UniProtKB/TrEMBL annotation:
<feature type="transmembrane region" description="Helical">
    <location>
        <begin position="164"/>
        <end position="190"/>
    </location>
</feature>
<dbReference type="InterPro" id="IPR052313">
    <property type="entry name" value="GPIb-IX-V_Complex"/>
</dbReference>
<dbReference type="GO" id="GO:0016020">
    <property type="term" value="C:membrane"/>
</dbReference>
<feature type="signal peptide">
    <location>
        <begin position="1"/>
        <end position="40"/>
    </location>
</feature>
<keyword id="KW-0433">Leucine-rich repeat</keyword>
<keyword id="KW-0732">Signal</keyword>
<feature type="domain" description="LRRCT">
    <location>
        <begin position="105"/>
        <end position="158"/>
    </location>
</feature>
<dbReference type="InterPro" id="IPR032675">
    <property type="entry name" value="LRR_dom_sf"/>
</dbReference>
<keyword id="KW-1015">Disulfide bond</keyword>
<keyword id="KW-1133">Transmembrane helix</keyword>
<keyword id="KW-0130">Cell adhesion</keyword>
<keyword id="KW-0094">Blood coagulation</keyword>
<dbReference type="InterPro" id="IPR000483">
    <property type="entry name" value="Cys-rich_flank_reg_C"/>
</dbReference>
<protein>
    <recommendedName>
        <fullName>LRRCT domain-containing protein</fullName>
    </recommendedName>
</protein>
<keyword id="KW-0812">Transmembrane</keyword>
<keyword id="KW-0472">Membrane</keyword>
<dbReference type="InterPro" id="IPR000372">
    <property type="entry name" value="LRRNT"/>
</dbReference>
């Protein structure tokens, strides 16, 4: 009986060892797959090291920035490019982001800078953004973007708002004209249909009257 118990214990220990080895193997394969996924998510115009995305010195502008960035990214380097603005919502999905290097870019402080200004204002540590300054327009050249007032930025948006308002008004006027034309066609069609219906109903009655004569 004792030998049977020893064999049972040995068998159970062997099973446990096998399961442990299989578990370690699966964890290792999972780790390799995660590394592969992280590597494949690195944008071709940038280089990746762990959770750091380096897109510096690539001549990037707002239209050529990478659109697919791993959500695990903690740091992005965008310095020494040709960025005049940052696309709306660019940083919003990166919940783990802790630092962004934005130095040495020709920032244009017009309506398109509002998103970057808003994002900078939300940062607890603004010391790393103390050199993010406007390159244009002339009246705002050298100003820190984070300290721009809404009036200063808004003054460069007036023409844009006026153009948008004009386009909206023209579009609304065109819509009203098209609706009026369609309404006129519908009214004409209904009147003609009504006339045709009356003529169609009256024709048999006239034939019956003539036959009775």
């Amino acid at each position: 009986a004792a030998s049977v118990e020893r064999e049972a214990v040995h068998f159970q220990f062997g099973d446990f060892t096998t399961m442990s080895l299989l578990l370690h193997r699966e964890l290792f394969l999972l780790f390799l797959s995660l590394i592969q996924v992280a590597t494949s998510q690195c944008p071709p115009e940038c280089s990746c090291s762990g959770t750091i995305l380096d897109c510096s010195n690539n001549g990037l502008n707002a239209g050529t920035l990478p659109t697919h960035i791993a959500t695990t990214t903690t740091e992005i380097k965008l310095n020494n490019n040709k960025l005049s603005s940052i696309p709306n919502g660019f940083f919003d999905s990166l919940q783990n982001l802790r630092s962004v290097t934005l130095d040495y870019n020709p920032w244009t402080c017009d309506c398109n800078i509002l998103y970057l200004r808003s994002w900078l204002l939300k940062q607890e540590d603004r010391s790393q953004y103390k050199d993010i300054r406007c390159s244009s327009p002339v009246e705002l050249q050298g100003r820190l973007i984070v300290y721009l007032t809404e009036d200063e930025v808004g003054s460069n948006c007036k023409d844009w708002y006026c153009n948008m308002a004009l386009i909206c008004q023209i579009g609304l006027f065109a819509f009203i004209v098209i609706q009026a034309i369609l309404l006129i066609f519908v009214i004409i069609f209904l009147k003609r249909f009504e006339k045709f219906s009356k003529e169609a109903i009256g024709a048999p009655k006239e034939d019956n009257f003539r036959n009775a004569m």
